[in-house]
Amino acid sequence: MNAIDARVEPLLSNLSKVLGHRRARRVPLAGRSPMANTTATTTRRARMANPVPYALADLLMISNARVSFFLPAATCGLLALSALAAGCTRVPSAPAGGEPTSPTAEHTSRINMAELERRILSYADSLRSRADISPDAFGRAIGFTLAPVEGNSIKSQAKNLSVTEGYDYAASYFSVESTTDYPRHSIIFYQQGKPSVTDSPDGVCYWDAEEAGHALERLGYSGGEEAPFQRGGIRHYWRRGTEGTQELSTSLLTYPSGVTAGARTCVYEVRFGGADR
Known about the structure:
By secondary structure, the protein is of the alpha+beta class. It has helices at 2-19, 40-49, 51-88, 113-126, 135-142, 209-218; strands at residues 147-149, 152-162, 168-174, 184-190, 222-229, 232-240, 246-256, 265-276. The radius of gyration is 42 Å and the shape is globular.
């Protein structure tokens, strides 16, 4: 406002001088003069006789007009600055690939199949005793939250999960009452809207069975002999636990990826459990 005052004040001073010397033709603007209801002739005579009150009145009206003009402009400027500041406020970024996740949140960000395999193997490696098995530990390791299944008091599950390759997967967990029993829990791979790969092999290989078996062996599991199971096969792997006679198991449910002789044997489900020996 100081810069504006510096430009306006000389104009007001000149206006006061002009009011004392102008003789005719000036018609006061409505609302600017304290005698707005008088005739134009009377007003001109009064101005010539005593110009000072009229100069002061004009000065007051111009000052008011100046304030009326610049106040909305200043307000708009402040609003614009506020909007700009809000637009520049940094929003926390989401992890690449999706919405932000936490260990106990529903798995909404999509990972690739290699990462899912890594998490499954990491969970298999974490199983050292019966005490390591729980719904929370299972969900944290893979990245989902298990929800109770209505009408089934011992089963919980997480479904409608997917990987970036376009495959889907789900998890299930069957609780047990005794602390000496081993809950069966698993991860199963599938494709929405398509038949099971054990019924209709279509060339898709979720996880090569040989690669998965060798990875388990590197973690200390042994076994791996394949046996027929539910229109496919199963490979059991065992590892001795840290407490007494406990043994932990990780089983691979398998299928041939195609109908040709050279089709690979692949994994469509990984099951976890254990037993006392």
